[in-house]
Amino acid sequence: MAKIILTGDRPTGKLHLGHYVGSLRRRVELQNSGEFDDIFIMIADAQALTDNWDNPEKVRQNIIEVALDYLSAGLDPARVTIFVQSQVAELCELAFYYLNLVTVQRLQRNPTVKTEMQQRGYSEQAETGDTTQKQGLPVGFFCYPISQASDITAFRATTVPVGEDQEPMIEQTREIVHKFNALYGETLVMPEILLPDNAACLRLPGTDGKAKMSKSLGNCIYLSDTAAEVKKKVMGMYTDPDHLRVEDPGKVEGNAVFTYLDAFCRPEHFAKYLPEYESLDALKEHYRRGGLGDVKVKKLLIAILNETLDPIRERRRYYEERIEEVYRVLEEGSAHARKAAAATLRDVRNAMKINYFEDKELIAAQAKAYKEKHA
User: What is the set of domains in the chain, with CATH numbers?
Assistant: First the structure.
C-alpha cells in the first residue's frame, strides 16, 4: 500500500509557532525524509467558511497568507501537493455520503467540536438569552468532523500529522472508514494519527500562558513576525508570578518561557548563546533554586526563536515578490488533488452501487429482463 499523508490548516489568519511545532515543522521533515509516496497539504477554506460564512473576504485574503507560510516554512511544491479545499468538488460529494454513517448524538459527543463551539461563541441552544453568544450553530460547522473525514479518505491518507487537539477528529474518521467498509466492502483506507514526538509541541501555550496559542486570544507569535516583534512578545511572556526577584526560586512547570525552550531549544544553542550552561536541564535547575532572572532566560529564547525564524522570513520575502507564482502552485496542486479525489470517489460510488451509467452489467441485465417480460 502506498504511504500517503494528508494534513492542512484553516485559512483564518497567518500561521503561528503553535502551528509550526504542532505539525508544520514535522511536515517539512516528512517531505525531506522521502518515506512517503505522496503528501497532500490542504488549505481548508471550505471548513473556514463554516464559521466565517458572513465574511468570505477574510477567508479569501488569508488563503495567500497560509500559502506563503507553507512555502516559507520549507514545503516544496515539487515534492508535496499544496491545494485549496474548495477547488476539489469531490470532497463535498464524499462528505454527503458519509453524513448517513454518523449520528447527531455522536457528533455532539466529539470533544473537539464541543471545544471549538465554546471558543467561537456558539450556544448549544438556539435560544439561550445570552447575547454574548452567537445564536444557533450552523450545520456546516457541526458537521466539521465529517468534512474532515472526507478530506482524509479522498486522498487515501495512511498518515495524518496533527496536533493533540485533533485526535478526536481522526478517531471519528476511523469510525466512518470502519463503518463504510463494513457496509460496502473494503474501499477506504484506515488512517493513522501522527502526533508530535516532543511533549512540549503537543499544545504550545500562548505568550500569556493560556492552554493554547490562539489568534482569537491575541497570544500568538507568528511565523511572519519580525525580529523586533518576537523580542517584544517574548519580553512580555508569562513566567512564574511568584518569581518576583532574581534570587527567588522559580517554577519551570507551567512557565511558558521554559515550555517554548523545550519546544525549540537544541544542545548546540547553549554553546552559542549561553555557554555558562551545558544544557537546558542545567538552566532549569538554576532557575528552580533561585539566582536566575526571567530576562536572561527570555533573551535566550529570543535568540533561539529568531534563529529559527530567520530562514523562514527570508523565503517569505522571496515569495511575497512572486505572488503570481504562489497562485500557480495552488492551481496546479488543486488540479492534481482533484484527480486523486476523483479516483477515490469513483471507487466509493462503485462500492455503494450508485454508478448507474458505468455499470454495464446492470443495464444489460435489466434490459434483458424487460425484453423477456414483453416477449
Answer: 4-204+324-361 (3.40.50.620), 227-317 (1.10.240.10)
